Structure formats: structure tokens, C-alpha cells
Amino acid sequence: MSLITCLSLHKDFRRGPSVTHAVRGVSLEIHRGESVAIVGASGCGKTTLLNMIGLITTPDSGELLIAGQNAKQLLSTQRAAHRSKFFGYIVQDFALIEDYTAIENAEIPLIYGPDRLGRSERRRRVQAALSRVGLEDKAHQQARRLSGGQRQRVAIARALVSDPQVILADEPTGSLDAQAGEDIFSLLIELVSTDKTLLLVTHNLDLAERCGRQLRMRDGKLV
Amino acid sequence: MTQFAFALRDVRRRPVVFVFFAIQLVVVLLFLPIVAQSAITSSRHIRIAESMADNRMVFFSQTLGTFVRRSVTPDGARWLSSALDENLRAYSVVSSIKLREHPDLAVVVGVGAFSELLQLKGHDSIPAGPVALIGNNVGSLRVGDYVSFGERNTKDILVHHRLPRGANYIARGTPQTLDNSLVILTSAESIMGFFYVGYHHFDEILVNTSLIRPSGADLLYFVSGVREMTGVALHPIELNDYSQQHHGGAFYGAVFFLVFFAITSAYVLVGIVVNIVLLLENHMSEYAIHLLSGARLWHLYARVFIYITLLVGPPLLLASILLRSMYQAPWAQLFGAIPLLGGLVSIIAVVPIIKLRTSDIFLHLRGD
Lengths: 223, 368
Known about the structure:
Helix content of chain B: 55-70%
Structural class of chain B: alpha+beta
Largest sheet of chain A: 6 strands, mixed
Distance between the termini of chain B: 34 Å
Number of strands of chain A: 10
Strand content of chain A: 25-35%
Radius of gyration of chain A: 17 Å
Oligomer: heterodimer
Shape of chain A: globular
């Protein structure tokens, strides 16, 4: 059974009289442990598709099954729990809170997680996640004082801290120089290769080729 | 608890703005009730004075009290007694007397035509001798009780009846409530019998004397008599004129400040709402990160509510404590600030909550 199933997903964005058909009838299956890259030009709908899968955006029509459960039938509590525990998100601009330390940023999913961990347990897990991304010595550094590569490592630590099944990465190297991008992507592949599912959105064909499967999008459709 | 920590962090991020709004709120929350109270009091004073306008009362210079220092001699006291009790339509009060058995109870001893002024129904039927009346709020005494009055000679005086709510009198041009007082009606002459020599109560009687509908001859009789007996020169003031000028001026002044502070309050409220909306704007990407990490919208609402409570609560508490001490209200009345706090927080939170509900917060995750 597939871990994520999309059946004819549609999503439109309306601004005044104009309508943008961001995703038009996308169907796909992603299996446990797979690494899937979605490539395509800017505005082709790949981020929208990723956001629908990650329960950030609601599809206008179509079916989305997460681990066999219809996403439409999930209560808001379950959707929130999935966001903290089932998915780990990595975005291009790191999405870090600038005046929080690395440890505070990476701790956030555990605060809202269904496990209701105590502060000391949360801190222990965050320290472990930061160690995995090689940032144990920067744990108490504010995000604004970290380099781009280090910030993305914090974002990866945050994505992994609650041990999610699926990592959703939207242009994770888009804001980094070539070397830092290569380092981050290698780290990401290494961390998720064992037992996690990776869904990567990228412009970068070289990165996409290092994933197990590549999907191409154009004008809101898989081609 | 976590949202409280986040809200506290929001406060720490902009301490200057926070303190600025807190000070503004204290000023508004403190002065708005003060001027409102002042407007209500002035209006009540005008109403009371108007209701007594037909009496065309005359009282004497407000600064009189500062000149009268043990001026009333025994002869002067006797003259004043006969003037108040027999020769003139006049009344006066002594409010400095305390009862041994009820030391916390305010006592107003009315002499002369005081009962006539109170407009008590059937005041003619009140016994001539000393009689006690209780204000509407007095709980320590009941009708039918006796109160022990006097120092040199003590007499048990019957509490004859309870005064209607809002009963009052006028002393030196200013209405005074009797709701919390024990009123003892007696003659001025009897004061000499009740208390020891020294006649200091007659200094107070002189200062508080008001003449009811006096003729020119009455005024001349009283002013010249006081001059002769005490050496004090009296300056008569007509209550009706005084009330129009003094209470009327105070009322319009209070209304002006009430409007001013009401507008200021509206500005402060709008300022706080704008401040919080700006806070939301600045924090949208942070909220998006929290939502992405499993937070629900109500977590964000809670955070905004706590922030507003931290902003509004301490100034409201401070203003309440200051007002309580100014008006000597019981501590229990401080609880009245709780619904006010809830109401204020709810009003201020409406716009931010609507903004959070209607925004696509996740859009703020992407820099492009």
C-alpha cells in the first residue's frame, strides 16, 4: 500500500477576476522509503502540490490519502498532529525564527506534538537532532547569527526532530551557494535514506537525479 | 503555559512600545473614572441645589473655617443658639462628633431648621426632643434602637426612622449625602448641655450655618450679631448663584474632560489594536512556522489574548488600586476590574483574531 496517494488533485488560486490553475488533476502514489523529486519551471504548481500533500493547502477537488486515511476526513487536530509528527518540512528560506536559538527553533514541532514531551526530554531530542546535522556546538546561537548552510541544517534538524515518516523539502538548497547546497543535500539524502520517505521539489536536475524517482510538472500537470 | 512563554517573549521583543501603551492606559483608566465621577457629582450637586432653590439659602464664606478658631464664647454660643432655634429660619450641622458605641459611623448633628431642609415627610411629627434618623445604607443600627449621645450629659436617643436613599443636606454650599450617616436632630441650645465647656462645636455650627429665605433684616441681624459676639466678619453667599457658578462650572469642566478622555481612550484603544495588528504582521512568518510544526489556530489566538492581557492587565490593576485608595472602596470591589479586563481584552482582540482567521498564514513561509 502506498504511503501517500493523490487522485486527480486540483487547486486554483483566485485574485480578483483572474484565476490561476496551479494544480490540474495530478494523480500519483508515493511508497514508504521512496525518494521522489518533482521538477519543473517556476509557477508550474510543484510547491502547491507539495503543500497539499503536506496538509498546508486544501485541494479544491480530488482525493488525498495519507497512510490510507482520506485527508478530507481528518479533523483539524489530526491535521495539526500530522504536521508535527508525520511530516517534516524543509523550505527554501529556512523558515527559522530569527531571534530564537537553534535549539529553540528545532524544538517547535515537539512542543505541539501529540507526545506531550517534557521540556528536558524535548531538549535531549533536539540536541540529538542538532548533533546529527553537525550543529551541536551552535545549539544556543541565535538563528540570525548562523550562516545560510547552518540555518538550513537547523531547519533539517527541526524537520527530523519528531522522527517523521515523510520529509517534504521545497527547494532546500535554493538559497545556498553551490558548495553549501551540495553539503546540505548530501546530508539530507544521508539522513532520510534509511527509513524515511523524501518528497523533494527542486529546479535542480542534478539533485533530482539523485532521488529514486523523478516527476516533471508543467502547467499544473505531471508530464 | 507554552503560549504564555511565547506571549512574554513578544512583550520582551518590544519593551518600549509595551511600556508606552501601558502608561497611556493607566492615564486613561485612571482619569476617565475620575472625571466621570466628577461630572456625576457636579450634576448631582446641581440637581440637589436646584431642588432647594425655593429656599433661597444663604451661607457664609467658605474660608470662614480658617478664621474661626475658638471664637465662640459661652455668650456667643447662647446667642447663636437662640438665633438658630428661635429668631431665624436657619440650620447648621456638627459633623465632628463620634459615638463611643459606633466609632466608625458618620454622625451629622442637625440643629435649627435642619429637618425642614431634609424635606422629611411630616417633619412636623418628628418629636421635638433629640431624635435620631439613619441613612439608607446604615446597617449597624435599626429603627427602634437607641443611641447613646453626649459627653457631659448622656441621653439615649431613639432611632425614629430610616431616611430615603439619596437623602442629603447642604453645608457651606456643597451637598453632602446622608446615606451612610446617623442624623441626630436636636436644638442648638441642647448641644451646650450634651458636651463639656469649650463650645468648640459652636465654632463648627457658626461655620456651617445657612439661613433659609432670609430677609435683609435677618441677614443684618445675623451678620452683625456674629460680628459683635465673635469678631468674625461674615460674607454672605447666595446658594443659588453659587451653585450655578461653582457646580455648573465644575460640571461643564468635568464634561469637557470626560469628552477629552473618552476621545483619548478611543485613540489609545485604536493605537493598541494597530500595535497588535502590526505585531501580527511582523510575526506572520513565525506563526506560519508554528502552524507548520503542528500548532493550531487557537494556539495563536491564545498567544494574542495573553499578549493583550499582559498589555492591559497591569495598567488596569494599577488604576484600580489607585482608584480604590482614592475613593476608599473595599478591596472586594477590585474584582470588578476582572470583567472589565475581559471586556477590554475581547474588544482589542477582535481585529487581530479576524486577521488571523482570514489570512493565509502559510503564504508567509516563502520569501518570494
